[in-house]
Amino acid sequence: MARQKPLHLYRNIGIIAHIDAGKTTTTERILYYTGKKHQIIDVHDTKDGKGSTTTDYLEQEKKRGITIQSAAVSTEWKGHQINVIDTPGHVDFTIEVNRSLRVLDGAVVVFDGVAGVEPQTETNWRLADQYNVPRMCYINKMDRIGANFKHAVNGIKNRLGANIVLCQVPLGSSDDFIGMVDLIAGAGYIWDSSDKDSKWETIPLDQVADHPKVKAFTTTADTEWVSQLAELRAHSIESAVEMDDDAMHAYLEGQEPTLETLKKCIRKGCVAGKLVPVFCGSSYRNKGVQQMLDGVIDYMPYPGENGGISMVDEDGNIIGEQPVTDDAPVRALAFKVINDQFGTLTFTRIYSGVIKKGDTLQNVTRGKKERIGRIVEVQANATKEIDEVRAGDICAFVSLKETETGDSLTDQQHPVLLERMRFPDPVISVAVEPKSRNDIDKLSTALYKMVKADPSLRMEVDQETGQTVLKGMGELHLEITIDRMRTELGVEANMGKPKVSFREAFGQTVEHTYTHKKQSGGSGQFAEVKMIFEPGEPGSGVVFSDEVVGGRVPREYIPAVEHAITVESRQGQVAGYEVLDFKARLVDGKYHDVDSSALAFEIAGRACFREAQKMSKPKLLEPVMKLEVVTEADYLGDVIGDINRRRGSVSEQGQKGTNAFVQGFVPLAEMFGYINFLRSATSGRGTFSMIFDHYEEVPASMVAKLMEKEAK
């Protein structure tokens, strides 16, 4: 079957933002205005559990009014196929943004018009940088009291370092928000009302200031934007034509660029990642979503427009690029696995080739074959069977047995690995046990399914206590995982008190020699290693250096010593946590012609590491979180005092719209149950967000106290 729609009419985009910026509300409006649904459900109307927005369909999402897992929907706008992924904004679910950005061609970054750039926006922006995803900005909630377009724009420029082009500026703010001016088209759009089917009036740029609704503006900031429209348009035109030499040359010679030329220039800059178009609106009040959709079509890339997918070798080194085309061997990436009533759904982005029902593909990551039984197009929690998928498509395969998140699926005759996804390490762990004896056998199966679906979860069995330990990105992440096991898999479990994932480090450089000798009849064992262990810079990892000269340790035994150090570093000598950031130098040693073996040198390497770490005055490291609290100014003193009591430090404070904010760094070990303090201290008005920042040494006086607390 031939391709139904040319590739240039496709857009694969993600909606990303900080929690509560309005991503799900914006997605609901997109589906309504593109005719995909005929009723709008608002997030705050779902907490009774009866209704649900299209993309927040999980019971946990409805109850809390937040997005927990990314959901894919497909729709059409002006002849273009738009595949949209609505992603979570909460830091505990960054993994969902991570894997969505990995397979998307563009992203719409949504901002709260009052708060501007928030911590999770910065995290998501860095992820988009990491995967080279072109972006456009949509400053939402311009109807809220305290909305400040200038503050949001300055944040995008200064905190995110974006080279922006203002495509729109708002007309009014808070209750006076009536529409926006399109600086590129040179026209103003003023809505008749806030109704979902309200029409808007299009007015030439030079007549906007004389409109009765504009003349009624009550604040200086709103009238200032209107007075600067001609100047702002000129600045946007200059930013656009800078992206194209011919357009720039014509403009400098006094030739006014056409609308088509301007759009072409902005698109060129946006696709290359050199320019970020900025739009505005109020999704909740139904203003600006259609114009933002036009922006997606005008400026976001189609699949493959900004390059294909990198192909890598076993070590992750890039060996080539696969363009997005049907006429090539199949190359696809599984980016998400979920378990639901249909069985296992493996969400996959097709980069090249055509996959038909019944085809057999190679899972190159795991060296296994996978038969494609059913292919479905996913509409949030609904599915529609399809017979084939082509380059540029996002689909789901049903009941793949071997494939996990991040696996490469390719043509059997042309196997190749695709560039891997990068996942964050968990920072918090809890003991999990079945609620009743009936759930004992089901628990490990349920946990395995949850961990397979979410790479930011880890499951381990504590060798000493025999407890099953679940590790994740935060208290909410783990709490929701346990709740989803109940609702989706019918397994009830109890969650123990959260534990922090500490780390260890060498305190100082140590030189140590260890001799392993066992000669009690029969073949003996002999190995001697002399090693120097040096503390490394944060983030440097474990570095092994072979500096043996003169064959004092035969070449074939050196990998055994390196393996010993790698394995032994996973369990330190302070409290059994992983040892980070050190260099292990093998400088000398001795061997025996008969009694030496790889095993003997591995044993010697392990013992040398253990003794050397103890001798180095080792440090215990703890995860330190970047914290931001937003509340009314009256409560700021209590919040700052509490941060200091939790061994934290304040780095910045200021105003966000009508509220005050404080940012700082606090050890995770001190942050459990913080929401309860914040609610009581701010009469329920304070909100906070927290993200892992770095590991820091635990003060010597606190080590025993913390270890005692963790052991309980």
UniProtKB/TrEMBL annotation:
Pfam family, one: EFG_C
Cell compartments where the protein resides: Cytoplasm
Keywords carried by this UniProt record: Cytoplasm, Elongation factor, GTP-binding, Nucleotide-binding, Protein biosynthesis
Tr-type G domain segment(s): 8-305
Domain of life where this protein originates: Bacteria
Bilayer-spanning residue ranges: none
CDD domains from the UniProt entry: EF-G, EFG_III, EFG_mtEFG1_IV, EFG_mtEFG_C, EFG_mtEFG_II
UniProt keyword GTP-binding present: yes
PANTHER family: ELONGATION FACTOR G 1, TRANSLATION ELONGATION FACTOR G-RELATED
Family assignment from sequence similarity: Belongs to the TRAFAC class translation factor GTPase superfamily. Classic translation factor GTPase family. EF-G/EF-2 subfamily.
UniProt-recorded name of the protein: Elongation factor G
Taxonomic lineage from the root: Bacteria, Pseudomonadati, Pseudomonadota, Gammaproteobacteria, Lysobacterales
